[in-house]
Amino acid sequence: MKIFHVPCLEDNYAYLIIDETTKEAAVVDPVEPDKILQALNHHGVNLKLVLTTHHHWDHAGGNEKMKELVPGIEVCGGSIDNVKGCTHKLDNGDKLTLGSHVNILALHTPCHTKGHISYYVTGKAEENPAVFTGDTLFIAGCGKFFEGTAEQMYQSLCQTLASLPKPTQVYCGHEYTVKNLQFALTVEPDNVKTQQKLSWAQKQRQAGLPTIPSTIEEELETNPFMRADLPELQARLGCDSPVETLRKTRDLKDNWRG
Question: How do the pLDDT tens digits run along the chain, 258 residues long?
Fold first, then answer.
């Protein structure tokens, strides 16, 4: 299994997932179909699946054009998310296969949107696991609570996604990492791992390189939204519970001008 970034719009990423044996591919959130077609041709692969994380235009807006460009393509999305062009509605726990070796598990991760799906993808023998988190989990951040509650985001981040194997690579929908890490240091100024990751992320961006993927392990170490269970973080924010801490952290981020 190989994964390739396709930068789109100002700061979005689409991703190609390729089964190397069969040369079949899936694409996550192909908002700029012409760029996706170029990437498919470059890698010499056949597109079989569109995996849509959620209904927002900058993620699902290319689906109809993809269907025109690749007749018969299967377009997947959350069953309650009203995804444009969707031909295959997914619920939590639904499974898909790509080629002969790639397995895809749909995880319902609501809050940013009601039907948001994250895709947990494994290759042969479950090697090199990856999760495509759209706008639920960002590197060192999370999506705004547009259609849900802090309770839902806690479930999505700190239970569903946090329970994935720690080496799982995290591929999110936007290049927000530097700002997210700068904010994270306002919440946990003494977090050495966050300081180190910010320095690394700034160098990556200066070189024109992505800061993605991260890993679940790194997010548990540096992402304040995934660290809401920690008593020291709760105390610092004057909160009594993980959910209250998550809500407070989101409020702080929404009002932060870094």
Answer: 999 999 999 999 999 999 999 999 999 999 999 999 999 999 999 999 999 999 999 999 999 999 999 999 999 999 999 999 999 999 999 999 999 989 999 999 999 999 999 999 999 777 789 999 999 999 999 999 999 999 999 999 999 999 999 999 999 999 999 999 999 999 999 999 999 999 999 999 999 999 999 999 999 999 999 999 999 999 999 999 999 999 999 999 999 987
Catalytic annotation, pick one of 19, 29, 55, 59: 59
Residue among 55, 108, 112, 116 flagged as catalytic: 112
Is 135 in the active site? yes
Active-site residue identified among 19, 29, 55, 58? 58
| Alpha-carbon gap, residue 13 to 212, rounded angstroms | 9
Q: Is residue 54 flagged as an active site residue?
A: yes
Active site residue 56: yes
Confirm if 106 and 90 have CB atoms less than 8 A apart.
yes
